[in-house]
Amino acid sequence: MEKEGFILINKPVGTTSHDVIDKMREITKIKKIGHSGTLDPLASGLLILGIGRKATKKLNQFQKLDKEYLAKIKLGIISDTFDKEGKIKKIEYEKKPSLEEVKKVIQQFKGEIWQRPPLFSAKKVKGKKLYQLARKGIKIEPKKQKIKIYKIEIIKYNFPLLELKIHCSSGTYIRSLANDIGEKLKTGGCLESLKRTKIGNYSLENALKLDEITPQNWLKFLINCTI
Question: Mind telling me the catalytic residues?
Answer without folding.
Answer: 40
